[in-house]
Amino acid sequence: MKAGTDISSGVQTLERGLRVIEAVAEGATDLGAIGQRTGLTRSTTQRLTAALVREGFLRHDADSYRLGPRLIQLGFQAREQISLVSAAREVLERLAAEVRDTVHLVQPEGDEVLYLDKISGQRGYELRSRVGARMPMALTGVGKALLLDMEESEWRRLFDLARSSPTAGGAPLPWEAWHAAMRTARQAGVAFDLAENELAVHCVAAPIRDASGGIVGALSVAAAEPWMDRERMTALAPRLRRAAADISYRIGWKDPA
Prior knowledge:
six-stranded antiparallel β-sheet, 2 domains, alpha+beta, Arc Repressor Mutant, subunit A
């Protein structure tokens, strides 16, 4: 009976310690603020913060608590152990099964997108994309999703670069229409490709963010135009945003809302 009680007490202490770390990460820097966020008494808060400082999970400068060096070390180790491909694979498989169309995962590679993963659709139509291939960033749906946080001057540079790329195989929009579409995409959090990269192929894409909040990748659902008209693309947008948020969460992103 005592062993069970000891385990229960240890789990409770661990949970409280994690709540303290989370409170400091969210901006609580003194005992009062930490206690208020965690709901712990001052004595318990003081005891836990002292233990966490000793172990390097927190540091204490004057009257201020900050995250400690041990967390930085663990963060780098976790980042090395979880690649974008492995973090995303389960989500991609689930999405592909739901929509029955081709699903892509990419990351930025200079001024292009690098295809990291692909699950082919179930409709018998194979897209030209392949893992390891690179495509112009400004002409692909996934590439546009990578651009959403960039300055508009960078949009123009990449647009001009993509228009001159020998790998472009679709029907690019003129700058004015492309620019207007990108502004809409920025507001919506999803980007559309209407046969700009590959003739008769449409796709909808969403950005993936890491712990810093920056865009580090994108995923898309793509299909031949008969299965991917404007109405279906719009309907798929919320699903793409949810899938991208799921992957982002797995690599450390936290929704600011």
